[in-house]
């Protein structure tokens, strides 16, 4: 697949997903690619992650599991792309529609907006219920400011992981690139945890996910910074300063970039100490603004997010046109 085709597919996929998302009726009938991937990951975890094995054996099994995941799904995506060759007025739209299922612009917006609405309609309990759908931390440990910060942090991090990263690999490697990324990210979210059962087995998935998210996390921060210069009530200089000062201090090598950009743009402090289950995680603050976030800050973050998504679409479309002019 030539670069101009993959960039065109990316542009169409971004537009299609923003317009209609992934229809609930379709999900009810056939599920979602992430759920299909999840079933395979669970099967490999059950079959290869044996508690009787040593730490080294379980780490080797985890590497094997990741290779199996990437091989099986990568070959399936490559075969589907080959089946639709030559790419034309049928093949390109079909691949774009399939690829749109790997991008989560609309669903992320809906889930984060639900937190703002939950706080307004149901108070702190409404906000806790809504935010529990998108974050892993203990919602009962969160006050209104904590709920609001958690929603904004999830928006920033998932803008990188759920939108910019699959878009980046889709534009660079077509449907196969996007599928391989999505498999890696899903594996990290399911088995890349430092628990007694998963620390060894999920090591490869977690480390590989860190690597493949490096370019997207930096691009996400730049898009948020650019969006802050276009949105009323947000600060481009604040976003830039927060990224330069705080991004590298996050416990994740990638999450700090979009979170710091979002924090600086909104004049907030994000991340910091958090509670997951009964475990308190000490983390550095991103941004040096106020910690008392509100539902209004969630709404402002969503406006910034929409602009950043628009900039991503504009960038993809411009690159598609440029590639078509140069390569055709």
Give a quick precis of the structure.
Helix content is 72%, strand content 3%. By secondary structure, it is mainly α. The two termini are 13 Å apart.
Please write out the topology.
Layout: H1 3-20, H2 24-30, H3 33-48, H4 55-83, H5 91-100, H6 105-131, H7 144-191, H8 203-212, H9 214-228, H10 236-246, H11 256-266, E1 270-271, E2 274-276, E3 279-281, E4 285-286, H12 295-327
Antiparallel strand pairs: 1-4, 2-3
Helix pairs in contact: 1-5, 1-7, 1-12, 3-4, 3-7, 4-7, 5-7, 6-7, 6-12, 7-8, 7-9, 7-11, 7-12, 9-10, 9-11, 9-12, 10-11
Function: Converts cobyric acid to cobinamide by the addition of aminopropanol on the F carboxylic group.
Protein name: Cobalamin biosynthesis protein CobD
Membrane topology: Multi-pass membrane protein
Defining traits:
cell membrane; 328 residues; 3% strand; mainly alpha
Task: Explain how this protein is built.
Converts cobyric acid to cobinamide by the addition of aminopropanol on the F carboxylic group. InterPro entries: Cobalamin_biosynth_CobD/CbiB. The chain crosses the membrane at residues 60-80, 163-181, 308-327. Belongs to the CobD/CbiB family. This protein has 328 residues and is mostly helical. It has one domain. The chain is built from twelve helices and four strands; from the N terminus they run H-H-H-H-H-H-H-H-H-H-H-E-E-E-E-H. The chain has helices at 3-20, 24-30, 33-48, 55-83, 91-100, 105-131, 144-191, 203-212, 214-228, 236-246, 256-266, 295-327; strands at residues 270-271, 274-276, 279-281, 285-286.
